[in-house]
Amino acid sequence: MDKNCRVGGKLHRIDLLMRYHLRAQEKGLIPPSQMRMLEFIERNEGCTQAEVAQNMQVTPASVAQSLKRMEASGFIERDARKGNLRANSLRITETGIGAARNCRLVFDGLEESMFAGFTDEEKELTNGLLDRLIANLESADTGEMNNMELSDLLCRRGPERGER
Predict the structure, then answer these.
(1) Is the pLDDT of residue 81 over 80?
(2) Looking at the domain that runs over 31-116, which CATH code has it been given?
(3) pTM of this prediction exceeds 0.90
């Protein structure tokens, strides 16, 4: 493959540039995972922590930490569920709605900037090509994993240097 066509380096640069542009936004931007949780809670008012974890495809323990932070920030409220005092119904607050919408606008704007000058057909082609690259790299071990699970797997295994 031609040195100038190395896809991995280009994908890494895109990731770095996206992070750069996100950090350049206002300081009050919430993490993307919180945005997705808040959007889920808004669409599913009264849902439980377990339902959020299932939707996000992460452990209830990791959701618990995020929910604790979001509650402290005033983004969500918890109410004891009738008939089961150990389960809480989650509700997004106006502050949470604003934070999620602000974050969504920033992400949508970033994506719009990334695809400036692209036709709809080129956008579809790009998405299709990225899907194919992902499919080519997925294995029986990683194919069913979401990004969070894959990240956790990499952290558990640690660096595997020198192996080929």
Answers:
(1) no
(2) 1.10.10.10
(3) no
